[in-house]
């Protein structure tokens, strides 16, 4: 019997460790114009997508990240109509956004058409409902160029990007965040994929430092995602409306009721509130984020 193949996540090589996954079957592998893409089946996590050696999504734990990146800003805002997703290739975030009937238009700006094409075939649970929804608008472009050029304004901007390497690097710059601020409607909120503070503190320090130079309220909230190893995952938070981070539990519960109690497996009004209560070591990381 041929030796089992193991695929390693190389994202933390600099820390001297690798998560390796026993491959049941490789479903798809290619070098796209922008990055190396491999999708394989894993006994426990189901389908796993890796881009440039970093785990992006698995069918077993995707709901945690996708729900927290989506429902926290949308329920905090309370009247989000226009939503922009930057990145988001697999459409997992888009699927959660479109659960909100109050959202009138969702625009997704993805740099790599190959990721969306492959997701149509391999993640139909995300792409089917999304691509069938008239409110959905897909733009193949570099997120930096799009936010720098667009004349549209958004209530919520969700940056579901890869890590600050390769095509994703520009999405962690002050230039990008300043352009996002320009595209936010009054009272709008920006949330960003911002790594795992225990292993990637510099990423959070840099982003929140930029946010502090641009927005009245800057920080992060957290959730624990099994395959984003290293404990809490940080989701960057930036807005000029300071009230949004502290919407009363009663109001969140009422907004959830009015949303028809859309289906979630992680997000609840209580989890939403708790996500902003940060452990001290992350508060200390944020304290290092000087205005830039
Ligand atoms: N949830 C995943 C994570 O936290 O690592 C990210 C998932 S999603 C697959 C990331 C997407 O960002 C990829 O499809 C990638 O092509 C896209 N992306 C990277 N850089 C981009 C850029 N500059 N503009 C738009 N999309 C970009």
Keywords for this entry:
about 290 residues; globular; 4-stranded antiparallel β-sheet; alpha/beta; 10 helices
Sheet having the most strands: 7 strands, mixed
Number of helical elements: 10
Give average pLDDT, whole number. 95
CA radius of gyration: 18 Å
How big a fraction of the residues is strand? 25-35%
Shape annotation: globular
Question: In whole angstroms, how far apart are the ends?
Answer: 57 Å
User: What is the chain-wise order of helices and strands?
Assistant: EEEEEEHEHEHHEHEHEHEEHHH
Q: Which regions have little confidence, pLDDT < 50, spanning 5+ residues? A: none
State the helicity in percent bands: 25-40%
The ligands bound in this entry are: S-adenosylmethionine
Structural class: alpha/beta
Strands in their spatial order, largest beta sheet: 9-8-7-10-11-13-12
Q: Say how many strands there are.
A: 13
Short description:
The chain is an alpha/beta fold and 292 residues long. The chain has helices at residues 62-77, 92-97, 113-122, 124-131, 143-149, 174-183, 201-214, 249-258, 269-274, 280-287, and strands spanning 6-9, 19-22, 25-31, 36-42, 46-51, 54-58, 82-87, 105-110, 136-140, 154-160, 184-193, 217-224, 232-239.
Report on the structure:
The strands form three sheets. A seven-stranded mixed beta sheet has the order 9-8-7-10-11-13-12. A four-stranded antiparallel beta sheet has the order 3-4-5-6, covered by helices on one side. A two-stranded antiparallel ribbon has the order 1-2. Strand 3 (25-31) and strand 4 (36-42) form a beta hairpin. Helix 7 crosses helix 10. Helices cover 33% and strands 28% of the residues. The longest helix is centred in the first third of the chain and has 16 residues, at 62-77. With 292 residues, it is α/β, with parallel strands linked by helices. Bound molecules: S-adenosylmethionine. S-adenosylmethionine binds next to strand 6, strand 7, strand 8 and helix 5.
